[in-house]
């Protein structure tokens, strides 16, 4: 009954989302046109696109299912990312189909539907909480294995009644006291008290008991969840992997390990880079190329080996901003005599980085990520800074969190590099599509204001 209630709620809220999307499309007709001609084929195609993309993304990512212990802030971020990905995908499809839909209509559709979809989700989240608090969707749970970890789990259940867990007791084969029942009584107790979940603490339970518990759970429709103690690890990302029959805890998991997140980031990279290439690079590259050629002898582009994902080197592209020289690697410094007149302007405005959109299209870089270092810098700092190489878990970026926070240009001290690495690792461990958008906006603001470190 409880499971069917949750499933029915998900269906209801999926239908509600689709109604909001299509209603916004219909309303846009009356807002944009003072004398609407009715439902056109283009409007029907728009409504069909909005619906099909939403359903497709829902099947892929299942945004209506979340853990009862999920926090509102986390659920909000996930759903807001889902809504943005949906609309970016819809815009891309409309662009390629060439539908005759005005920009004003699309603005109306987005302006109406985005806040309504978000408010609908807030209602969905708190409706689940209300149902739990009214004891319509609670779960009876027990803990097998008595010790510190079991005590922490029991404390969690007691401190968070809003999550709908009702703790009924401990069971253990090693401990005998007033608070702990014998493991021999577990089966009968679970059947008599409608237990839905058994939490088994691995430090205090042997493998034979665990197997028997899992078999009992499968035979009685009771979920058995295994708890191991990794509280000493600093990593926030922990995932379970299976190697044949062997469960393995990955304590170095990051959000971009997940395939769906990789797809979201890559689609954004391609759409953003494609738009920049068509709208800006197509006419700006020839102008900058002519200016560079007039200013000094040498190639238009400068290629430098830099460390990419997995610390694999690749040719990072930039506009050439210095005179051609054969000296060993040396970071650009303030008033560097090697920088040309045109190069100084390109560096100050960050236009010298524009060719890296080509690296993005080739899959070597991303729009957002840790800035790729010259190989010499990696060799210099990796022995000095702990977890320095962790920044190479993902593709490097044209801009990144460190750059948005002011860490640009020459790295003069080890302290400065530590600041960069700390922000890079934070980005990798906490990646989200929303965070990428925030960094894009922060970078644009930084470029508009100008940066003393850009030289």
Commentary on this structure:
It is a single chain. The protein has 455 residues and is of the alpha/beta class. It folds into three domains: 2-133, no CATH class; 139-229, Rossmann fold (3-Layer(aba) Sandwich), CATH 3.40.50.720; 259-449, no CATH class. Helices cover 52% and strands 13% of the residues. The protein has helices at residues 2-32, 41-61, 72-97, 103-133, 148-159, 186-192, 207-219, 259-295, 341-349, 356-361, 375-381, 401-404, 414-429, 433-449; strands spanning 139-144, 165-172, 180-182, 197-201, 223-227, 239-243, 246-250, 301-307, 313-319, 366-368, 397-399. The strands form four sheets. A five-stranded parallel sheet has the order 3-2-1-4-5, with helices on both faces. Helix 2 packs across helix 3 (72-97). The radius of gyration is 28 Å and the shape is flat. The relative contact order is 0.07.
Quick description:
By secondary structure, the protein is of the alpha/beta class. The protein has helices at residues 2-32, 41-61, 72-97, 103-133, 148-159, 186-192, 207-219, 259-295, 341-349, 356-361, 375-381, 401-404, 414-429, 433-449; strands at residues 139-144, 165-172, 180-182, 197-201, 223-227, 239-243, 246-250, 301-307, 313-319, 366-368, 397-399.
């Amino acid at each position: 009954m409880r499971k069917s209630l949750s499933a029915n709620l998900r269906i209801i809220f999926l239908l509600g989302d689709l109604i909001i999307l299509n209603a916004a499309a219909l309303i846009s007709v009356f807002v944009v046109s003072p004398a609407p001609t009715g439902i056109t084929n283009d409007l029907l195609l728009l409504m069909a696109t909005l619906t099909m993309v939403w359903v497709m993304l829902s099947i892929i990512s299942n945004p209506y299912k979340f853990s009862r212990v999920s926090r509102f802030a986390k659920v909000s971020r996930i759903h807001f990312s889902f809504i943005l990905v949906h609309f970016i995908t819809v815009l891309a499809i409309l662009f390629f189909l060439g539908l005759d839909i005005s920009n004003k209509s699309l603005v109306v559709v987005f302006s109406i539907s985005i806040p309504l979809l978000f408010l609908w989700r807030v209602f969905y989240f708190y409706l689940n909480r209300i149902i739990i608090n009214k004891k319509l969707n609670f779960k009876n749970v027990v803990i097998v294995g008595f010790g510190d970890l079991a005590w922490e789990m029991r404390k969690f259940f007691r401190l968070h009644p809003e999550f709908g867990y009702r703790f009924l007791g401990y069971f253990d084969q090693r401990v005998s006291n007033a608070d702990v029942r014998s493991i021999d009584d577990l089966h009968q107790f679970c059947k008599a008290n409608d237990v839905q979940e058994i939490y088994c603490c691995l430090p205090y339970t042997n493998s034979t008991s665990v197997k028997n518990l899992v078999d009992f759970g499968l035979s009685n429709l009771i979920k058995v969840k295994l708890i191991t103690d990794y509280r000493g690890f600093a990593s926030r990302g922990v995932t379970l992997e299976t190697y044949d029959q062997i469960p393995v805890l990955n304590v170095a998991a990051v959000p971009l390990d997940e395939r769906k997140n990789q797809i979201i980031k890559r689609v954004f990279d391609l759409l953003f880079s494609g738009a920049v290439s068509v709208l800006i690079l197509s006419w700006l590259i020839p102008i900058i190329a002519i200016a560079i050629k007039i200013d000094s002898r040498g190639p238009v582009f400068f290629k430098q080996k830099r460390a990419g994902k997995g610390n694999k080197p690749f040719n990072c592209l930039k506009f050439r901003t210095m005179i051609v020289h054969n000296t060993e690697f040396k970071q650009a410094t303030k008033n560097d005599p090697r920088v040309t007149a045109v190069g100084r302007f390109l560096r100050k405005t960050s236009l010298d980085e524009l060719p890296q959109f080509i690296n993005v299209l080739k899959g070597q870089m991303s729009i957002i990520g840790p800035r790729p270092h010259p190989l010499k810098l990696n060799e210099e700092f990796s022995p000095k800074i702990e977890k320095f190489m962790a920044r190479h878990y993902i593709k490097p970026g044209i801009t990144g969190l460190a750059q948005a926070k002011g860490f640009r240009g020459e790295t003069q001290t080890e302290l400065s590099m530590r600041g960069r690495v700390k922000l890079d690792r934070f980005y990798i461990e906490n990646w989200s599509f929303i965070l990428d958008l925030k960094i894009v906006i922060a970078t644009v603001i930084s470029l508009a204001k100008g940066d003393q470190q850009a030289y």
